[in-house]
Design a protein that fits this description.
Distance between the termini of chain B: 41 Å
Strand content of chain A: over 45%
Shape of chain B: globular
Number of helices of chain B: 0
Order of helices and strands of chain A: EEEEEEEEEEE
Helix content of chain B: under 10%
Oligomer: heterodimer
Distance between the termini of chain A: 36 Å
Number of strands of chain B: 11
Low-confidence stretches of chain B: none
Largest sheet of chain B: 6 strands, mixed
Low-confidence stretches of chain A: none
């Protein structure tokens, strides 16, 4: 049982390039989330999904797109990377609906945009 | 809208001393509160959560937190710090039906021998 995994672990992009971050979970969780973590800012929610085929915007969605074609995978896309998107990206998942669910986090993807 | 404020970006304690990490929340509806811990170069893991069942919540690794509605606080404590407690700690609040979390900015706990 691997839990939540993220690919890649680290990536360097040039401004304007595109890339996709992959999150996979093997816990059969319905809900999945993408956060970004910046120094002194905590974690901020980018997008989330409440089930296969659904996505919704979080606090900081601009410049990102997501897709949830399979229940176990949640993809985060950057169409045209900007230096402001340099960050550590975390994926999380939870089974429960309602506000008390425990989120399980992946190990993170460190992205540097030059 | 809900928010969380963590007082102190860094807290330093000696090994064996009391750990106190402060968290205050703002919410127009009854909140559910969480403490997560992040060890260096790792993801976050749940320490404990308040779900209205009991105001004093015990978590893993000897940590506990008390929900005080009158003070809008959910401070994290541990009676005796250990070197392995050195990490960043995040307080978070959830009010939505989709388990979305609003995080505080985090407090780095430094433990000296």
């Amino acid at each position: 049982n691997a839990g939540v995994t993220q690919t890649p672990k680290f990536r360097v992009l040039k401004t304007g390039q595109s890339m996709t971050l992959l999150c996979a979970q093997d816990m059969n969780h319905e809900y999945m989330y993408w956060y970004r973590q910046d120094p002194g800012m905590g974690l901020r929610l980018i997008h989330y999904s409440v089930g296969e085929g659904t996505t919704a915007k979080g606090e900081v969605p601009d410049g990102y797109n997501v897709s949830r074609l399979k229940k176990q995978n949640f993809l985060l896309g950057l169409e045209s990377a900007a230096p402001s998107q340099t960050s550590v990206y975390f994926c999380a998942s939870t089974q429960s609906g309602g506000p008390t669910g425990t989120q399980y986090f992946g190990p993170g993807t460190r992205l540097l945009v030059l | 809208a809900q928010s969380v404020t963590q007082l102190g970006s860094h807290v330093s304690v000696s090994e064996g001393a009391l750990v106190l990490l402060r968290c205050n929340y703002s919410s127009s509806v009854p909140p559910y509160l969480f403490w997560y811990v992040q060890y260096p170069n790792q993801g976050l893991q749940l320490l404990l959560k308040y779900t209205s069942a009991a105001t004093l919540v015990k978590g893993i690794n000897g940590f506990e937190a008390e929900f005080k509605k009158s003070e809008t606080s959910f401070h994290l404590t541990k009676p005796s710090a250990h070197m392995s407690d050195a990490a960043e700690y995040f307080c978070a609040v959830s009010v939505s039906g989709y388990s979305t979390l609003t995080f505080g900015k985090g407090t780095m706990l430094l433990v000296s021998p």
